[in-house]
Amino acid sequence: MCFKRCTERIWIEIVQVTFSNKCFREGLLLGLGNPLLDISANVDHEFLQKYDLKPNNAILAEEKHKLLYEELMELYNADFIAGGSVQNTMRVAQWLLQKPKVATYMGCVGRDKYSKILEDKAAADGLNVRYQYTDKESTGTCAVLITGKERSLCANLAAANCFSPLHIEKPENKHLIDIAKYIYISGFFLTVSPESIQAVAKHAHENDKVFMMNLSAPFLCEFFQKPMMAAFPYVDIIFGNETEADTFAKANNLDATDRKQIALKISEMEKINDKRKRIVVITQGTEAVLLAKDGTITEYPVIKLPEEKVVDTNAAGDAFVGGFLAQLVQGKSIDTCIKCGIWTAAQIVQRSGCTYEGKPNFQS
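-> structure tokens emitted (364 positions)
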């Protein structure tokens, strides 16, 4: 009797795995962004002041930040983690999917030891890495400065700035774009290659694919408004946090301060593909996630963790989108996508950097 029950259980598990693997395939999801090696360390507020940085903010490095990276490595116990917003999201999606190369990632790196570290780590996570290499710059880095539960990001894009449309025109890379059904970019990529964004956005529209973007940082909504709004009419799903949404509303004169109204107005902005309405997802830290869909706002409570369990909120947003996309490519409902995003973010913030271990056990 016991043998029979065990046999039945094994058979059910085999059927479940087989069915699950048929739900998604290699190359289904494509991400374009800025691959960066994160240099992460705990610092004090005096260190932030020294380099004119603010907690819970993200900026691009200027000349005054030149010595920041060396100081982090020499004087602080810094960790090196494969990073970059989209690369983080793709890695997290791969962790949840548990099937290699469902996600493809493109970005530009230098020909150096850091790009080798990035590629090895990403490939080990199951990601299909298709870097463009340049001899002009070294691989980009991002200082992740942790003060208590807050973090400040200062990115030196370096080689990431050198991405060009030539890379996506290569036959082997064009093939990967052709077979993808879901395409995701970060707002950070707007500073690098608006031409590439326009190319993949138009491809998505012409082939009825899902094109998604993240607002990524308040400064992008303000100072890179032109390339952002050029891409916006193609966006099917837009992600952002509370400060990004507020800044976007001001920059685009949406005449709204209530975040629910902001989400609805963003969903109603011009959209080229009229086969489906735009979906807007706004995260709000420890407050409810807002979903604007079909003219309606839905709120999703987040998982409240004890303060002592929260280690690093740096990758929470990237992890949320990774969880969302992992369900989306399997054809799951938006409701399930958001719940998985919330669950995934809660797992990642309990570790340092965008890291994870073991097999995910998300239950929809």
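The longest helix spans residues 2-22.
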